[in-house]
Amino acid sequence: MxxxxxxxxxxxxxxxxxxxAVGNVTEAAADEARxxxxxxxxxxxxxxxxxxxxxxxxFARQLLDGVQQQAWQQFQMAGELxxxxxxxxxQIVTQSADIYMDAMLRSWEYNRNVLDSAGRALEDAVxxxxxxxxxxxxxxQGYVDNVEEQYGNADARR
Length: 158
Known about the structure:
The chain is mostly helical and 158 residues long. The protein has helices at residues 3-48, 53-157. The chain has a single domain, classed as Methane Monooxygenase Hydroxylase, Chain G, domain 1, CATH 1.20.58. Helix content is 96%, strand content 0%.
């Protein structure tokens, strides 16, 4: 599996985890809202049935307490959602840093290997040039010796 596919797979898993956390919080908030609205409807029916002013006052207190409790629950859910998002963000940043460091390490190793290969190739080229120059020098010296022999013999014959 290529590095790009691994990265995509990890990102997809992280995104699905965040979606799941948000879905759970949203479902819990919807359930709480349904329960609160059902209780308020029952109390409203009791007051409408003529339970009296004390019942209306108690209903108002219960309704106020219910609203305060519902607001607190919503605040807690928002806090939990924020914490979930922070954890998901932290996980994404950590994964990204790991992937980045792994890519940097691989790049560094690749560059080091390329540099080593280039150094060996340069050493081989310099050695080849040295041998070539040596052979050319010997060949030229042989040629000069041959010319001197031929001209040296020609001078001796005169």
